[in-house]
Design a protein that fits this description.
binds pyridoxal-5'-phosphate; 7-stranded mixed β-sheet; 3-stranded antiparallel β-sheet; 12 strands; Aspartate Aminotransferase, domain 1; Aspartate Aminotransferase, domain 2
């Protein structure tokens, strides 16, 4: 691996120099007014990025997985029933966590490459006239397969079924990179981590709770200590934490939200969409197919690419690392060996994406796949030049 190359794994993502510097700070007293000047702007910035104006937001020293745990432990009670789809490694692991918490999971198995089955969820919710289902779990962007699910549609389905379950959304690989609308989609708990769209090292779980989720926490019976939002709220009221916060990362997060909001979330989303469509154009030029089975499912943060039958896709990741010092994402779980992934979220430009595409095609050619050198790069260049022309024309 070369430290000079960008990474193309779907998290942790590349860290802009300014954010790295913001994380690197001397020790301060985390119970002093100086910490308040980091904590409150970081919270406000995160809320703006995910479109949350109501409810409360919490930042735990943890990873995205800790965010899942905080969502469950604060809103549910032992034995509660939840509804979830399994369509990739991340939705699988969240379900596994629910089971370890002693929750009853209605698990809908979906092909890896498809999104959350909104219509089927609506039927299940309609049939639940007794209101047994307390929460619907949704993985907005399945990072293992490069599939985005329709959270707005899921909310409409929940409303159409007149079901009042909480909507818990894993936005770990979408928030800050793909449109996410906490208020508009009436999300009850949104979970993300610091190392994806926020371009930071891993170490923070960022979790938004709606007013409804906060109200549910008052009677939720699952035990929680480290992830207690009640303890965290009391800490915030005193400009502190119930324990020691990750101060440098929090300062980095404050800067990251400033960077994103300064670029403008619409521009951030457009940049991710453009870079992703260049990557997909390259995949098409290589004659390969995506794991995601339809265009409306295509993720703008990660592309999972199927390799020909009988070829172990993990060899691409290994060879790229050893031969060219570049990191791509390997296949996980049910699609291990069948796909490799190009992560293209966070601090990413058209030019960076071109370098990843160029290396990927050298790797595949080295390994004997029938790829024409330069074909993917040319296809992506076509997309990126169009984007540049559109930007130039808008400026004139
Ligand atoms: C990365 C990721 C996670 C897990 O986050 P960790 O920070 O590794 O705990 C959860 N869900 C999705 C969709 C992810 O991409």
């Amino acid at each position: 691996m070369s430290l000079q190359n960008p990474v193309f794994i779907p998290g942790p993502t590349n860290i802009p120099e300014a954010i790295r510097k913001a994380c690197d700070m001397p020790t301060i007293d985390h119970r002093s007014p100086m910490f308040a000047q980091i904590l409150h702007p970081a919270l406000a910035g995160v809320r703006d990025v995910m479109g949350q104006s109501q409810g409360e937001t919490f930042i735990f020293p943890a990873s995205g997985t800790g965010g899942w745990e905080s969502a469950i432990a604060n809103t549910l009670s032992p034995g509660d029933t939840v509804l979830a789809a399994r369509n990739g490694m991340f939705s699988h692991k969240w379900i596994d966590m629910c089971q370890r918490f002693g929750l009853e999971v209605i698990q809908v198995d979906v092909a890896w490459g498809l999104g959350l089955p909104v219509d089927q969820f609506e039927e299940i919710l309609r049939a639940d006239t007794a209101g047994k289902i307390k929460a619907v779990l949704a993985t907005h962007n399945e990072t293992a397969t490069g599939v985005v699910s329709d959270i707005a549609g899921l909310r409409r389905a929940m409303n159409a079924a007149s079901h009042d379950a909480l909507l818990l959304v894993d936005g770990v690989s979408s928030i800050g990179s793909m449109p996410f609308a906490f208020d508009d989609w009436a999300v009850d708990v949104a979970v993300t981590g610091s190392q994806k769209g926020f371009m930071l090292p891993a170490g923070l779980a960022i979790v938004g709770f709606s007013e409804k989720a906060v109200a549910a926490s008052k009677t939720a019976g699952l035990p929680r200590t480290f992830f207690s939002i009640d303890d965290m709220r009391k800490g915030y009221a005193a400009n502190a934490y119930p324990y020691t916060p990750a101060v440098g990362l929090m300062n980095g997060l404050k800067h990251a939200t400033e960077m994103l909001l300064e670029e403008g979330m619409d521009a951030v989303y457009a940049r991710h969409a453009r870079i992703a469509s260049g990557v997909r154009a390259a995949v098409g030029a290589w004659g390969l197919s995506l794991c995601a089975q339809a265009p409306e499912l295509y993720s703008n943060t990660v592309t999972a690419i199927r390799t020909p039958e009988g070829f172990n896709a993990s060899r691409i990741v290994e060879h790229a690392a050893t031969q060219y010092g570049m990191a791509f994402g390997t296949g996980l779980g049910d699609v291990a060996g069948k796909v490799f992934r190009i992560g293209h979220l966070g601090s990413m430009t058209d030019a960076m994406a071109l370098s990843g595409i160029a290396v990927a095609e050298m790797v595949m050619t080295d390994l004997g796949l029938d790829i024409t050198l330069g074909s993917g790069v040319a296809a992506a260049q076509g997309v990126y030049r169009q984007g540049a022309t559109a930007t130039r024309m808008a400026a004139e």
